[in-house]
């Protein structure tokens, strides 16, 4: 903060520091509100957004976001009364959460994920909630509640004849009963929810709290707010400072997300951090923006300022962190050390050149749905989709070759610099890789053996 004061030289330093603390998004809420139909998810999410000044994201609000590129495709599924694919929902959410308002103010994700597959897709995209609230109530209560639900077809807002009736007579007149709210349909939805919930619980159990929704709404909301304002302590036996190094396509991002999810550490991807600085329009972000916009590497001194500030934030100091994307060479490693940022676990991911090429050069994306495919491991399901797939320019063989060459040119010196590093065979199942990394994270570091000095017989006297 002292650096910010020196850079900006505000007329009122005290007020500037207060505003700066308010704008800092390190503590921005990242909350999922889940539960069966009619459990009060919308009421809780809306109330939290008003109280925390966060952005509410739900399936309904996403379909109203005309500026999102994938909204049209999602609406087309809905108009055809077809189920919107999980990947399309996940990509819509990722696109929405990357907007500046969500980055700065935080977000409340209502009613999503609905199953473990959706949760995995969010996690793979780096969308990891800090708090997950699950509302529950007996099925008989939920069925009774659902009979009073009403929908405003104009705004898609949900009301209730008993608990949340609008005061505006015009709104009252246009409310309709949702078509899918028969008792049989409600029972089907509840059955589906109960079938899917264990998978979600398994993934989010470290940050999840179940709250009884069959009580006065004031009590429910009070318990929800109390929970989302708590800070989680790391589940690791020490404060982890973990560094992942590896060539492109070796799976660093996925493993970082898994470690962050299980142990409550902060997941820091250097490239994403720079983009967030630009989105926040900070002084350093403005300096970084021209380099990112033109595809040039950001100077090390700017990267270090942004990275050091983030890694010295309270959540990183308290809970620990896992860093990927930096350092890329010995000079950057030395700069980290000079800034007193010293990891206590370093992993180098090893992946053969042929596997890197196979993973990256065959990746394709559907420009309409945003869904990712792979010509070998996950081909497009229909010729129509296959025909419209596109390749990201960075996944062209010549570009992959350049990135791998740069990594290989610098990795030997980095390996010598981090002499206590662990080495990961990244050419195997991700869950096996995670188990190996986890075993290295939780066990103590080997103590270095101190060599006894050689004593010359002539020196004894």
Notable features of this structure?
22 helices, five-stranded parallel sheet, 14 strands, single chain, 461 residues, 13% strand, globular, disordered C terminus, alpha/beta
Overview of this protein structure:
The structure is a single chain. 49% of the residues lie in helices and 13% in strands. It is globular and about 70 Å long. The protein has 22 helices and 14 strands.
Q: How many distinct beta strands?
A: 14
Q: Whole-number average pLDDT?
A: 84
- Please report the number of helical segments: 22
Estimate percent helicity: 40-55%
Structural class: alpha/beta
Strands of the biggest beta sheet: in what spatial order? 2-3-1-4-7
Strand percentage: 5-15%
| N/C terminus separation | 60 Å
Overall 3D geometry? Answer: globular
Which spans of ≥5 residues are poorly predicted at pLDDT below 50?
20-24, 445-461
Rounded radius of gyration (Å): 25 Å
Main β sheet profile: 5 strands, parallel
What topology does this entry show?
Blueprint: H1 2-8, H2 13-23, E1 30-34, H3 41-52, E2 55-57, H4 59-63, H5 71-79, H6 86-97, H7 100-105, E3 107-110, H8 116-124, E4 131-136, H9 139-146, E5 149-151, E6 158-160, H10 169-174, H11 183-204, E7 208-212, H12 217-228, E8 241-245, H13 252-263, E9 266-269, H14 270-279, H15 283-293, H16 300-311, H17 314-319, E10 321-324, H18 330-338, E11 345-350, H19 353-361, E12 363-365, E13 372-374, H20 383-388, H21 397-417, E14 422-425, H22 430-442
Parallel strand pairs: 1-3, 1-4, 2-3, 4-7, 8-10, 8-11, 9-10, 11-14
Antiparallel strand pairs: 5-6, 12-13
């Amino acid at each position: 903060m002292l650096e910010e004061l020196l850079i900006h030289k505000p007329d009122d330093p005290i007020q500037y520091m207060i505003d700066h603390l308010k704008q800092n998004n390190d503590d921005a809420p990242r909350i999922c509100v889940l539960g069966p139909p009619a459990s009060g998810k919308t009421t809780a999410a809306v109330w939290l957004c008003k109280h925390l000044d966060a952005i509410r994201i739900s399936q309904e609000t996403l379909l109203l976001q005309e500026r999102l590129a994938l909204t049209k495709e999602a609406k087309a599924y809905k108009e055809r009364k077809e189920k919107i694919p999980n990947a399309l929902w996940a990509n819509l959410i990722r696109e929405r959460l990357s907007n500046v308002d969500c980055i700065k103010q935080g977000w409340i994700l209502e009613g999503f994920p609905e199953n473990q597959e959706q949760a995995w897709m969010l996690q793979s995209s780096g969308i990891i909630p800090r708090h997950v609230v699950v509302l529950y109530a007996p099925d008989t209560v939920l069925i009774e509640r659902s009979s009073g639900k009403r929908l405003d077809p104009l705004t898609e807002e949900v009301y209730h004849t008993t608990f949340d009736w609008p005061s505006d007579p015009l709104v009252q007149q246009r409310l309709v009963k949702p078509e899918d709210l028969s008792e049989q349909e409600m029972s089907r939805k509840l059955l589906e929810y109960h079938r899917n919930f264990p998978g979600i619980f398994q993934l989010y159990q470290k940050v999840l709290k179940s709250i009884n929704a069959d009580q006065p709404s004031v009590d429910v909301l009070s318990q929800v707010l109390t929970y989302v304002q708590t800070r989680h302590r790391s589940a690791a036996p020490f404060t982890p400072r973990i560094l992942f190094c590896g060539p492109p396509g070796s799976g660093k991002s996925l493993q970082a997300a898994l470690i962050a999810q299980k142990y409550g550490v902060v997941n820091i991807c250097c490239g994403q951090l720079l983009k967030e600085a630009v989105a926040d329009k900070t002084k350093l972000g403005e300096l970084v923006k021209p380099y990112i916009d033109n595809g040039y590497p950001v100077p090390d001194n700017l990267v270090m300022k942004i990275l050091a500030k983030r890694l010295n934030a309270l959540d990183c100091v308290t809970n620990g962190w896992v860093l990927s994307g930096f350092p890329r060479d010995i000079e950057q490693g030395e700069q980290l050390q000079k800034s007193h940022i010293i990891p206590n676990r370093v992993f180098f991911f090893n992946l053969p050149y042929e596997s890197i090429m196979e993973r990256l050069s065959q990746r394709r994306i559907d420009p309409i749905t945003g869904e990712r495919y792979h010509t070998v491991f996950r081909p497009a399901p229909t010729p129509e989709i296959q025909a419209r797939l596109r390749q990201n320019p960075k996944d062209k063989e010549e570009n992959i070759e350049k990135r791998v060459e740069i990594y290989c040119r610098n990795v030997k010196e980095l390996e010598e610099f981090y002499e206590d590093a662990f080495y990961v065979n990244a050419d195997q199942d991700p869950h096996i890789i995670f188990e190996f990394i986890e075993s290295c994270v939780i066990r103590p570091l080997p103590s270095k053996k101190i060599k006894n000095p050689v004593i010359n017989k002539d020196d004894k006297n």
